[in-house]
Structures
1.
Amino acid sequence: MAYTNFYNGNQMPTIGLGVFRVENDDTAKEAVKHAIVSGYRSIDAAYIYGNESKVGEGIAEGIKDANIKREDLFITSKLWIDDYGQENVSDAYHKSLNLLGLDYLDLYLMHWPGTNETLLLETWASLESLYNQGLVKNIGVSNFNIKHLEMLLNHAQIKPVINQVEFHPNLIQTELRTYLKEQNIKMESWSPLMNGEILSNPVIKNIAQEINKSPAQVIIRWNIDHDVITIPKSITPSRIEENLNVYDFKLTHDQIEQIDALNQDKRIGPDPAEFNG
Ligand SMILES: NC(=O)C1=CN([C@@H]2O[C@H](COP(=O)(O)OP(=O)(O)OC[C@H]3O[C@@H](n4cnc5c(N)ncnc54)[C@H](OP(=O)(O)O)[C@@H]3O)[C@@H](O)[C@H]2O)C=CC1
Ligand SMILES: O=C1CO[C@H](CO)[C@@H](O)[C@@H]1O
């Protein structure tokens, strides 16, 4: 497993398993367990996904079956907008911990900026408080655009280590990526495979054929080559394994440029400037 360094010296696995739209039953448990046994060390969960309890069971069984320790894993969850505000954050954090069966998270993210600046800043201050109390190892944000980040950084005591945003070959986020690099904040990509849609793109398929890898592996490698942490979701054991198996090759400069050229600034999810849950 390869790791990405945060500005604070902590490290996060470059690839993790996403669990959005995974049923809160044995599907979630088995996918997470299979991922851990196959070598994954990072899981991207969220309260709003409604599956933290079965994800937690998968984590517990994965630790046992892979014969590793909790500290070997990097578990992320996200604070949903309904729980923003100073009076709610600590309860929401502990609610996620209880569901996951954990006593700390490696990373807790504000899931969306929302449209209320005061509430955003108050909520970030509450995350800082969790961090300062040693209850969570790292704090970060998700779906923040440059405007949200500038506002946050004007007030924050602690910088987010990460911004998790939509990123795939049709939305390459050049401006935001440059800004995050300048700020020393890591980018993490959600829906890296465009929820499967981009896998049949002829350019991607061509490159995959050229190097004898799958389209998903090409895109995941393209994330790594752009220094973007990524969390492809799969509940299919062979795909879970395939998506981690990208460390024995690199894309050429030309192949990276071909994929970059697929950009259309096209989102499959909401625009953070407007979305409010
Ligand atoms: N912060 C945020 O606002 C958001 C965060 N996320 C996070 O990002 C994660 C990933 O994004 P997500 O939207 O789930 O979509 P992805 O882009 O990861 O695509 C998942 C889809 O691709 C399929 N797939 C996965 N691997 C392969 C493969 N090797 N070959 C062929 N098909 C494959 C999966 O099928 P199958 O499962 O059937 O194998 C599934 O249908 C989420 O699970 C979540 O953790 C997502 C959205 C928003
Ligand atoms: O991570 C995500 C998936 O679930 C949420 C809604 O159900 C989305 O808003 C969010 O972006």
Note: The chain has a mean pLDDT of 98.
2.
Amino acid sequence: MRLRVRPPARLHGVIRVPGDKSLSHRALLFAALAEGTSTLQGWLPAADCEATLRCIRALGVEVERPAADRLIVHGRGLRGLQPASAPLDCGGSGTTMRLLMGILAGFPFPSTLVGNAQLSRRPMERVAEPLRRMGAEVRTTEGHAPVYLRGGTLRGIRYEMPVASAQVKSALLLAGLYAQGPTTLVEPAPSRDHTERLLWAMGATLEQHGRTITVYPAERLSPLDCAIPGDPSSAAFPLVAALLIPGSEIEVTDLLLNPTRLGLIEALQAMGAPIRVIPEGERHGEPVGRLLGASAVRLQAIEIAGPWVPRMIDEFPIFAVAATQAEGTTRVRDAAELRVKESDRIAALAAELRRMGARIEEHPDGFAIEGPTPLRGAVVHSHGDHRLAMALAVAGLIAQGETIVEDAECIGDSFPGFVKRMQALGAEIEMEP
Ligand SMILES: O=C(O)C1=C[C@@H](OP(=O)(O)O)[C@@H](O)[C@H](O)C1
Ligand SMILES: C=C(OP(=O)(O)O)C(=O)O
């Protein structure tokens, strides 16, 4: 599938984006380990989360699905998973593979985790190595999937994490539930904290002091009855489009507003964007609310580095599009992690945005973009990366002439209904086979 994109007059309207991807993975995985029945509404029916659902069923968990975004999960308790009869297929989802590694480290049976070609290029030793220290048998394939794992009796460890990664942190916190004694992690910078909040809401014992988090062994988790708010990483695309298209004004309702996820919004506000965040309370320990965005008269370049990076880690493709329209040189540093996502997001962004006339320089750990630069329509490629495909579609909305985004089906990995929602706001985006 490819997208044909033309500049629209303006974007206008109110939308809700699909459920948060990080929360959808976690709510399902943790509900499977709870004692009793959990109900998940607003669950994200995207390819990445479908991979988690497939794996959880393969591990013996019964899940009813009265609607695409509604799951009833019959939890089997913390020790109740059964060995899968075939390798667990995590598709292209890093979150699925890494969080499952942490959970399966608590089980004495052998498991094999596999993924597609893209996921099989991504690093897995970052989870395997600390799990071995906890006492699990873990073998990777030269650092990658397939991963062969046999868990069992684990010991709590103290571990200084070399990278700020919520997936590594989550895997080790989950393994820590099965350990003898507490497990303490020290993060180099705060990453998204959904695992901590949700496990806490389900009755687990965790303590946090600054960048140090301790989890205690657990006997049971309580089931969940939750409505998952919209994904701020998906809202980022219509939001940036509205900023860049003159005369636009949009509202995104029922959105997750966890501060560890709002780095992009803070960056855009610092650049001069008229964005308003309207908190509306908490659900399951997570702040939720609305977002208002309108077109910006002028954006100023900024520098993003250090602890700011993990708080907007998935938003750099769309941030780069905004940066092409900002005055001055926008610089991103300390973001080498972008090279090990669905694509090498630094190299891919530079290659594709250049085709549209952007002035972007690639660095080992980030990039620099000079702006403002008028973009021109071009044929661009997603590199099989959903966030790149959507960022390029937004770039097409502000480019002169027509833009074709090739290989755009990957958008379904995180944001089913992206095109429909953008069209509802007035965007000229067509899907072609
Ligand atoms: O824990 C999560 O749900 C995620 C953590 C991040 O990955 P890392 O932990 O590898 O930074 C992020 O990029 C990914 O989209 C989702
Ligand atoms: C990196 C991402 O996801 P994952 O690591 O779960 O594949 C993403 O959604 O941008």
Note: Residues 48, 93-95, 314, 341-342, 387, 414 surround phosphoenolpyruvate (ligand 2) (CB under 6 Å).
